[in-house]
Structures are given as structure tokens and as C-alpha cells.
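Comment on the following before class.
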Amino acid sequence: MFGDVGFGELLGLGILALLLVGPDRLPTVALEAAKMIKKFRKYATSATDQIKDSLGPGYENLKPQDLHPKNFIKKQINEAMVDQPKKLNAKVKLDPDML
């Protein structure tokens, strides 16, 4: 999540927070921020679980990044290619009336 943030940026953010909030209130603000992040993660997890339940069987291993439309379509195409390779490799016949 913080892969692109280096030590210098974190130090700068810490100094900025110290200046904006003040040394007396900084621990309470940090604690409230941690609680808010924990609550957000809890909501995200429960939302993912509800989506898994509503989708039914076959989606037990669903991850939030799987819900991105691009990833979802790729996964469905890959599963279709594994399940029915003969149908996908069959020659396509065109209907002359459709042209």
C-alpha cells in the first residue's frame, strides 16, 4: 500500500502533522486515525463477504481486486478456455444472409 512512499516522505508527513496538530494532540489524532482505518477495513471485509454470499457457489475465493471489471472478464475468459477448448477452437461458419 505504501510501496512508493520512502522514509523521507514519511518523515516530512510526520513533521507536518506535528506542526498542524501540535505535540499535545498528536497521539490522540493518531489513535483516532488508526481506529478509523480499522473500521474502514472492517466495512470493506464485510462488504466483500456479502458480495461472496450473494454471488453463490464458485466465488468463495473472491478478492476485492477480482471485482475490477478488467480482472473479472479476464478470469471468466480463462475459465471458459479451460472448460471448453474444443468449442473455442472450432471453425466459425458465416451465414451468407448475415453479410
Q: What stands out?
A: Residues 7-98 form one domain. The helical segments are 7-21, 26-55, 69-83, 85-89. The CA atoms of residues 26 and 81 lie 55 Å apart.
